TrEMBL record:
Protein name: Insulin 2
PANTHER family reported for this sequence: INSULIN, INSULIN/INSULIN GROWTH FACTOR
Keywords (A to Z) from UniProt: Carbohydrate metabolism, Disulfide bond, Glucose metabolism, Hormone, Secreted
Highest taxon, organism lineage: Eukaryota
Gene Ontology molecular function: any one: hormone activity
Protein family according to the UniProt entry: Belongs to the insulin family.
Protein source organism: Gallus gallus
Subcellular location: Secreted
């Protein structure tokens, strides 16, 4: 069993939530400038 999968065998996060975070970091740190602190906030 993969350590990323829960007991039901599904990933513990929803794909749409991941996409939301992914879009956020691209908009904030690629299209605009962001500080190192803001960038680190995306890294748990």
């Amino acid at each position: 069993s993969s350590p990323l999968r829960g007991e039901a065998g599904v990933l513990p996060f929803q794909q749409e939530e991941y996409e939301k975070v992914k879009r956020g970091i691209v908009e904030q740190c690629c299209h605009n400038t962001c500080s190192l602190y803001q960038l680190e906030n995306y890294c748990n």
